[in-house]
Specification:
The chain has about 240 residues and is α+β, with helices and mostly antiparallel strands. About 50% of the residues lie in helices and about 10% in strands. It folds into 3 domains: about 5-50; about 65-155, no CATH class; about 155-235. The protein is built from 12 helices and 5 strands. It has a 5-stranded antiparallel β-sheet, with helices on both faces.
Length: about 240
């Protein structure tokens, strides 16, 4: 393992993470580069490697204040003009890194109606939040909200797959394991087989990550000219 390659991977994964370098464990999960590949050889600490790559090491994360969580959520609500789904929150976060992860709300407040109730309580007694209270009411007073919330979670969970046809490899995504292989098999002249699937709650984001990672080997669309090392790297991941 060469030092230059590790530095290049730190820069590449940081760019894919909105300009923030990954922590040591996540870096290994994404790249397959083990701690033993660099510690005591090139750097004594992970922070030293991150600095040499041109970044400042991540500081220990501090739990976000409840008021900040509320105001960021309200900002998204007003931008959309409705109570956002999990998928919409994730899309907003891709364009604005300051927006908390959707899981932060799920862990802190619970289900969609519970989040709406918490925001309603936050807005009561504050001036200028009448529009937010009205949007929260549409969620709290709707008997179908729980079902919609479940559907949002289900829709956002899927797979990013690696398939092979002839000498070419396809990286794509699907919400149903096996279905995409059947759909493609009836369109291709050569036998198609699935080599590996990664389960994820962000199929679009993880598919984009692998497309960018193998961009230099792209042939056409979602088809790539991969080697055995690339395939082994993809297969290291079962969940992302």
């Amino acid at each position: 393992m060469k030092k230059a390659h590790i530095l290049q991977e730190i820069k590449r994964t940081a760019e894919a993470n909105g300009g923030m370098p990954l922590g040591r464990q996540r870096f290994f999960k994404v790249t397959g580069i083990k701690e033993s590949d660099w510690v005591g050889k090139f750097w004594a600490r992970w922070g030293d490697a991150v600095r040499e790559a041109g970044f400042e090491p991540n500081q220990k994360q501090v739990a976000l204040s409840e008021d900040l969580l509320m105001e960021k959520f309200i900002m998204v609500m007003r931008d959309l003009g409705r109570f956002p789904t999990v998928a919409e929150l994730r899309m907003k976060k891709r364009s604005d890194a300051s927006i908390p992860n959707s899981r932060a709300y799920e862990r802190r407040f619970g289900s969609k109606p519970q989040v709406a109730a918490k925001i309603r309580d936050y807005c009561h007694g504050r001036t200028g939040y009448e529009d937010v209270l009205a949007l929260c009411s549409t969620v709290i007073d709707s008997p179908s909200v729980e079902a919609e919330s479940d559907a949002d979670s289900e829709e956002s969970t899927g797979f990013v797959y690696l398939m092979k046809s002839g000498r070419s490899y396809k990286i794509g995504r699907s919400n149903a394991a096996g279905r995409r292989e059947y759909e493609l098999a009836i369109q291709l002249p050569e036998k198609l087989r699935t080599l590996h699937m990664i389960r994820t709650d962000d199929p679009a984001g993880i598919e984009e990550y692998w497309h960018k990672r193998f961009a230099a080997k792209r042939k056409n669309g979602e088809w790539f000219d991969l080697d055995s090392k690339d395939i082994a790297t993809f297969r290291r991941h079962k969940v992302m």
